[in-house]
Design goal:
Elements lengths: L3 E6 L5 H10 L3 E7 L3 H10 L3 E2 L3 H5 L4 E4 L6 H10 L3 E5 L6 H13 L4 E4 L6 H6 L8 E7 L11 H14 L6 E9 L8 E8 L4 E7 L6 E8 L2 E6 L4 E8 L7 E8 L5 H15 L7 H24 L2
Parallel strand pairs: 1-2, 1-4, 2-3, 4-5, 5-6, 7-10
Antiparallel strand pairs: 7-11, 8-9, 9-10, 11-12, 12-13, 13-14
Helix pairs in contact: 4-5, 5-9, 7-9
C-alpha cells in the first residue's frame, strides 16, 4: 500500500513536531512544509528530508494529507484552502476562532469527502486512554489547566488557548446539552483574558467547574471526575491517575478503595497522527472529528459570552 504524502502548514513550536513525526511514521512520507518564514521552513525541511514550498497552493499540488499548525487566527483560512483542494486535514485546536467558521469547515469536509480531525491531543494522552474505561457517567468535573506566560498563543484568549482542551474532554464524556454557563475572566499580560473560571451546568444535572490560566508560576494539567461509584483523578503532566471506588457494607460506614495508575511515555502527538492516518485509510470517523471540535468551540464561546457579561457588570 502506497504511503500517504503529507505536508505541514506552519512549522513553528508545534508544527515542527508534526513534520518530525510524519517523517518517521511508516504509513507516511513527509513531502513538504510551508511557513510565512521561508528560512524556518527551509531549516525544518532540510532537517526532515522534505521540500520547503514557497506558498500553500504549491504545497497542495504535491500532498494528500496536511497538518495545519499556524496561529489560531489563521486556522479557518488555511483549513478551508486545504479542504477545497480535496486534502485530508488535521487542524490544531481550536478548529477555528468562530463557530460559524467551524461549521463551514465541517460542511466542506463532507462535500469534498475529506477526513477532518481536530488536534485535541489530550484525548491521546496515554493516561487519558488508561483511565477512559473507568469513566462511566460523571456528574461533576473539576479541571485545572495552568501554564506559564508565553507570547505564543496569545492571538486568542485563554479559553480558546487552554480551556478548550478541558471543554473537549468534558464533552467527550457525553454530559448532554448545556443548560447554563457562568464565567469570569481577567486580562493580566495580553489584550484578552489570561485567566478564566467557568461553571457549566448541563441539562442532565452534570456540572463542570474549570479554571485556566496562562500566567501561572508553574504548569498544571489536572482533572477530577466524580461519579456514583467513586471518583477518577487524572494528572496529564505526570501521567498518573487515581481511582477511588466507593463501597458500602451493611451496618458499616462507606469505604473508598484507592487504586493508582501510571501510564507510559508514548507521545500523544504521535498517537494522534497515527490515529488520523488510520481514519483516512479506513474512511472512518476520526477520534476527534470536526463536529467534536465545533462542539467544544461552541461551548467555549458561551464561556466567552459569560466572561464578557461578567466584565460589564464589574466595569
Amino acid at each position: 500500500m502506497a504511503k500517504l504524502r503529507t505536508g505541514v502548514i506552519g512549522v513553528g513550536h508545534l508544527g515542527q513536531h508534526h513534520a518530525r513525526l510524519y517523517a518517521s511514521l511508516p504509513d507516511a512520507t513527509l513531502v513538504g512544509v510551508v511557513d510565512h518564514d521561508h528560512e524556518r521552513a527551509s531549516l525544518i525541511g532540510r532537517q526532515y528530508g522534505a521540500r520547503a514550498f514557497d506558498d500553500l497552493p504549491d504545497l497542495l499540488k504535491h500532498v494528500d494529507v496536511v497538518s495545519v499548525a499556524v496561529p489560531t487566527s489563521a486556522h479557518y483560512s488555511a483549513t478551508k484552502a486545504c479542504l477545497e483542494a480535496g486534502k485530508h486535514v488535521l487542524v490544531e485546536k481550536p478548529i477555528a476562532v468562530l463557530p460559524i467558521e467551524a461549521r463551514e469547515l465541517v460542511e466542506l469536509a463532507k462535500i469534498n469527502r475529506c477526513t477532518l480531525q481536530v488536534g485535541h491531543s489530550e484525548r491521546f494522552n496515554p493516561i487519558m486512554q488508561t483511565m477512559r474505561p473507568h469513566i462511566r457517567r460523571p456528574v461533576l468535573f473539576e479541571g485545572q489547566r495552568m501554564g506559564v506566560y508565553s507570547e505564543r498563543g496569545t492571538d486568542v484568549d485563554v479559553v480558546l488557548d487552554l480551556m478548550i482542551h478541558d471543554l473537549d474532554l468534558v464533552l467527550s464524556c457525553n454530559p448532554g446539552p448545556v443548560e447554563e454557563v457562568r464565567a469570569a475572566g481577567l486580562s493580566v499580560r495580553s489584550s484578552s483574558s489570561d485567566v478564566a473560571n467557568a461553571y457549566i451546568q448541563f441539562e442532565s444535572g452534570c456540572v463542570a467547574s474549570l479554571i485556566a490560566s496562562r500566567v501561572s508560576l508553574k504548569a498544571m494539567r489536572h482533572m477530577r471526575l466524580f461519579q456514583a461509584d467513586g471518583y477518577v483523578s487524572i494528572d496529564f503532566q505526570s501521567r498518573r491517575g487515581v481511582i477511588g471506588r466507593r463501597s458500602v457494607e451493611p451496618g458499616l460506614k462507606p469505604m473508598v478503595a484507592v487504586e493508582e495508575f501510571q501510564a507510559g511515555d508514548d507521545e500523544p502527538l504521535r498517537l494522534q497522527l497515527e490515529s488520523f492516518l488510520q481514519a483516512i485509510r479506513a474512511q472512518s470517523c476520526p477520534v476527534v472529528s470536526g463536529e467534536n471540535g465545533t462542539a467544544a468551540l461552541e461551548v467555549a464561546h458561551r464561556v466567552l459570552s459569560a466572561i464578557n457579561a461578567f466584565g460589564q457588570r464589574n466595569a
